[in-house]
């Protein structure tokens, strides 16, 4: 087996990130019959894909007899492909999952418990208990946390400086209001010609924070939805005021990006806005797409300053019901979160590691942007909401419905109260049949 050929193939595959790709052993030739074949599927971006393929190569070198292959798609296409694989009974052995959809995949039997492998092929002895709890549903452990994550506003420091907006003086990045955002976003547009913020009218992540900021639990343990028509109307009205004040890109432009998750299309990367709202683990990937230096902040808040953001696992790795070799698959999963060499390659791109030894080993090697991510986590302590139950089946469709109907608000096709009433009616119907 030629290391040169395999590495060469890995690098060629990683260069094509963004479309479905698979890394096979022996530069594309069939593996030896005795090799145990494992497939790992994740949603990615160029930075994540490069790191993950390098980890797969290292694992294969360190574990003769097990050959892991990697498959990746952009977030927008990942779950569509996974749904097809579930229907066809050919899911990869290991898949990436998010907390927001975990319950749905447990409920439909797509992922299976890991309890039988703990202490054998799967080591969770150094994993934070909070991360284990987040991956446990109805007393069974289903999901191995890759790292901790939270909502993060990322801003172009050059544009803020050019507008004379100084974080920490003109606004508190860890406690500013929507009214303050409206003011400095408009000021940035006036000074630089670039709108100061993305328009989050169709951003369900921001809306989920807003629900908590109104003192409401988004999902109760029984799956009851906490949003009300009044909350939806207030949220959309806030962003309408920010938009009307000139702080966001044109509504038509924002509407065309509703539901788009590619980092390369975000306003802070394309230069169409000075501030974008994402997950904290995406900071490394976004900075990699930019020359200007990024700064970070929490999401905006209401005047009452009730915490809205949560700290949750950025992603999990899960074992699927279609795994051909669960022991080999969980051996790989265990190394993915525990092996120091492998985790040094992964860094913080998927979030703050949940394994204590890994965090300690990474600390001296952090890049500037990774250190900024750790600093952000330090500063949000005590300012986040409790982690609620995993969303129920149908929650993902509710999110998609919110994004779709928000376009009508942006384009002023109907009034905010009309669209909010429509959303609540459709959301309740989705949850009733899920």
TrEMBL record:
Renumbered to this chain, the signal peptide range is: 1-33
Q: Where in the cell is it found?
A: Periplasm
UniProt main location, coarse: periplasm
For this protein, the record's Pfam families field holds: SBP_bac_8
PROSITE patterns (alphabetical): TAT
Signal as a keyword of this entry, yes or no, is yes
Coiled-coil parts of chain = none
Q: Which InterPro entries match?
A: Bact_solute-bd_prot1 (IPR050490), SBP (IPR006059), TAT_signal (IPR006311)
Keywords of this entry? Periplasm, Signal
Write out the similarity annotation: Belongs to the bacterial solute-binding protein 1 family.
Protein name in the entry: ABC transporter substrate-binding protein
Organism, by scientific name, is Devosia albogilva
Source species taxonomy: Bacteria, Pseudomonadati, Pseudomonadota, Alphaproteobacteria, Hyphomicrobiales
């Amino acid at each position: 087996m030629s290391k040169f050929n395999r590495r060469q193939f890995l690098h060629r595959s990683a260069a094509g990130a963004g479309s479905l790709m698979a890394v096979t052993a022996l530069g594309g030739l069939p593996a030896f019959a005795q090799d145990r074949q494992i497939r790992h599927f994740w949603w990615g971006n160029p930075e994540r894909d490069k790191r993950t393929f390098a980890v797969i190569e290292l694992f294969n070198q360190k574990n003769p007899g097990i050959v892991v292959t990697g498959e990746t798609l952009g977030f927008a296409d990942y779950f569509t492909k996974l749904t097809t694989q579930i229907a066809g009974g050919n899911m990869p052995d290991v898949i990436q999952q998010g907390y927001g959809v975990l319950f749905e995949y447990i409920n439909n039997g797509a992922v299976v418990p890991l309890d039988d492998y703990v202490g054998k092929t799967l080591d969770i002895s150094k994993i934070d208990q909070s991360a284990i709890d987040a991956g446990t549903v109805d007393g069974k452990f289903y999901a191995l946390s890759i790292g901790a994550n939270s909502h993060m506003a990322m801003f172009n420091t050059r544009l803020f400086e050019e507008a004379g907006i100084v974080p920490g003086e003109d606004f508190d990045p860890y406690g500013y209001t929507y009214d303050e955002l409206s003011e400095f976003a408009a000021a940035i547009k006036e000074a630089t010609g670039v709108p100061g913020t993305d328009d989050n009218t169709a951003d369900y992540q921001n809306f989920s924070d807003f629900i908590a900021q109104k003192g409401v639990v988004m999902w109760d343990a029984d799956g009851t939805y906490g949003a009300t028509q009044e909350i939806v109307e207030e949220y959309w009205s806030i962003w309408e005021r920010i938009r009307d004040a000139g702080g966001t890109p044109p509504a038509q432009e924002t509407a065309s990006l509703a539901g788009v998750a590619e980092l390369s299309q975000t306003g802070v990367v394309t230069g169409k806005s000075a501030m974008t709202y994402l997950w904290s683990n995406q900071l490394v990937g976004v900075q990699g797409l930019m020359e200007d230096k990024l700064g970070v902040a929490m999401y905006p808040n209401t005047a009452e300053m009730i915490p809205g953001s949560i700290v949750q696992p950025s992603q999990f790795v899960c074992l699927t019901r279609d795994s051909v070799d669960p022991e080999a698959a969980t051996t790989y999963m265990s190394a993915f979160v525990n092996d120091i060499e492998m985790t040094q390659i992964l860094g913080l791109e998927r979030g703050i590691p949940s394994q204590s030894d890994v965090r300690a080993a990474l600390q001296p090697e952090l890049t500037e942007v990774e250190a900024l991510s750790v600093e952000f986590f330090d500063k949000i302590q005590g300012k986040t909401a409790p982690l609620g139950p995993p969303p129920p089946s149908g929650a993902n469709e509710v999110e998609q419905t919110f994004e779709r109907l928000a376009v009508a608000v942006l384009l002023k096709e109907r009034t905010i109260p009309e669209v909010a009433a429509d959303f609540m009616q459709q959301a309740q119907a989705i949850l009733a049949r899920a």
